[in-house]
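Write out structure tokens for Extracellular solute-binding protein.
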Amino acid sequence: MNPQITRRQLLAGAGAMSALAMFPKLAFAQQGSATTAIYPGAWEEAYRGIVAEALRETHGIDLQMQPLFAVDQIAQARAARGNPSFDTFVLDPGPRVMAIENGLVDIFDASRLESSAHLEPGMIDEHGVPVAAQFVGIAYNPNRFDTPPTDWADLFEEPYVSRLGLTGFQTTFGTVSIIEMAKAFGGTEENVEPFFKELQRILPHVATIGTPASMPSLFQQGQCDIMYTNTQTVGTLRARGVDIEFVRPSSGVITFFTTMHIARGAHEVANAYKYIDTVLSTPVQQQLMQAPYFMAPVNSEVTLADDLPLSDMSEIADMIQHDWSVINPRRAEWIERFNREVAS
């Protein structure tokens, strides 16, 4: 059958083509959505304000966000049994290993990311891609000490220990910091016993003990003047007018990545890749690095902020990283022991 095209149909078609030429974004109007798990708080706020808008402008995709901490993402995905409520995970190293070991992430296809060319070699693997770097070291109030600390062992001696804010293994930055403290006293990634030995000695002297989430506020209030944390927290406090500086320990800056992964059984895989590619794009990474979010980029095309502890993304390869397949089996015991010993 060869239907006749009427003059009205021809004019309607021409009008539609003219509209698309004048307003090219209309071509994306029916591209659907992607659903991502996202960390509550600053991550959700940043992604709602920057990433979601960029994804809509570039691809016409609506970003739906489910605010979930990493352990909750994994719990939900396991319970879903291959029918997850979100298309992408966002995870720190420990939960990332758990998600992979539990078969919750799909094989990652780097060829679907235009931005992959701007990442350092080896960053992308078969499981996912980093979207933000974390840099961990020592933060202190420069007005309270004549000289800054230079290494992890310094935190256990005066004048620093009596102004130390102490927190445990609940977070990634807390865990890796304590591992490096243990190493300063002869420990290893598997053996943090030297830290616990020193902990008993200093407990009567530390300024405060708190949860990781409370430590920035305790520092801002002056209840402690030295803590172990990441550059994102330092930037946030400095933007509030707090006197704070970041120290690179003599043993080296710790780094780890927050990564994204395609959930196995994801419903909107194509849109999920476009979402991740948008996160990794140079303009978005540049915006996320600025106040008030201070998220360290992984895109090598980004002009790095002066207060980050590197001048080129290639320097990450020389920073201290940890093997979470070794840490994960021990971490629950470390958390329980730390909580017990500081409470006794």
